[in-house]
Amino acid sequence: MLRIKSLELTDFGAFKGKQSFDLPTEEGVSVFYGENMRGKTTLLNAFRFALFGKVIGRGRRAVSFHDMINWEARANGAKSFEVRLSLTHAGADYRLTRTCRPKSGAANPSGHADYTTDYYLERGGHILSPDQAALELERILPEQIARFFLFDGELLQEYEDLLHGDTDMGPKISQAIERILGLPTLTKSRDSLKIALDKAEERVALAAQGDQKTQELGNNLQGLVEER
Length: 228
What we know:
- This protein is α+β, with helices and mostly antiparallel strands.
- Helices cover 44% and strands 21% of the residues.
- The protein has a six-stranded antiparallel sheet with strand order 2-1-3-4-5-6.
- The chain is elongated, with a radius of gyration of 30 Å.
């Protein structure tokens, strides 16, 4: 089970400088609430950026990385931001760090295309290779079902839209959830076991027939012995 322990931000959105949040250790759902324009969506995007390298606004439109640099820090010369997550999954401790910075040669970045992102993932204090990190992140929280883990209450209409049959998003999410729960594997295992069971029953039936013939031969032999 995925459990996020803490979030650390550096010049991300409304959060200037380095700021951190510790999440509850108890079982359940963590809720961030407050007045409008107080940074709730920014916090949600901080989790999303760390995990998937994306920042999404209203209508699920991508937000420029340039606009996510804290405006006060940017006025003072800042050109990058960073998000770090500490989390646990399947008994292992992880630390995920993702940074956004200007591309090489972009001395005065002004738009999304002028930035690049880098990340590294630590497991048990050891940094994983890029391929290992990508596989681990996909296993920990696939992006297809992230909206159900990182839930924005102000976007309920999007969840209602999933119930309508005029889009293919609902089936895709359903398939992703089934894959995470291991249902395809269980289904294939069930089918394989059914085939194995059928073969076993056939062998038992053949063995029973053989036993019956052996018993008949034994009875005949006994009768011949008695006649002799």
